[in-house]
Design brief:
With about 140 residues, the protein is an alpha+beta fold. Helices cover about 30% and strands about 30% of the residues. The chain has 3 helices and 6 strands. Helix 1 (about 45-65) crosses helix 2. It comes from Robiginitalea biformata (strain ATCC BAA-864 / DSM 15991 / KCTC 12146 / HTCC2501).
């Protein structure tokens, strides 16, 4: 049987919610002040972009360790473009993988990105069902 995730999201009043995670951690969700919230938590659509980056980032971090690659810093910039019509959904998402280091093994790092994007990351596979995705890898030699 396939594994499942179960989260509980509890209303805290006004526009705020607290959601748990199978890891046992909690986080807050809130609307922006323009939308009637206090801006005291994560925004749901932005969390989707974080999930995409986090899923792929975990794959790549595992591959960096497995391939014994030297990377001094790694970050992911994710920008989603929303539709104008309601309900607003992501139409296009750009994902940039940034690697920093002295002697980056660029071909191996690109292979790690490609494996995540094409094979391992389930969140990317879900996003492909509703948005155009653009992936770029940027190497910063220190």
């Amino acid at each position: 049987m396939a594994s499942t995730n179960h989260v509980t999201t509890r209303w805290l009043g006004d526009m705020a919610f607290e959601s748990n995670n199978p890891s046992g951690l909690n986080f807050r969700i809130d609307a922006s002040p323009e939308d009637g919230g206090a801006g005291s938590g994560m925004r749901p659509k932005a969390l989707m972009l974080s999930s995409l980056a986090g899923c792929s980032g975990l794959d790549i971090a595992m591959l960096i360790r497995k391939m014994k690659l030297e990377v001094s810093d790694f970050h992911i910039e994710t920008v989603g473009s929303l539709s104008e019509d309601h309900p607003q959904t992501y139409e296009a998402v750009r994902v940039e993988f940034h690697f920093h280091g002295k002697n980056l093994a660029q071909a191996k790092l690109q292979r790690a990105v490609d494996l995540s994007v094409e094979k391992y990351c389930g969140v990317i596979a879900m996003f492909r069902k509703f948005a155009e995705l653009d992936f770029q890898t940027v190497f910063h030699e220190d």
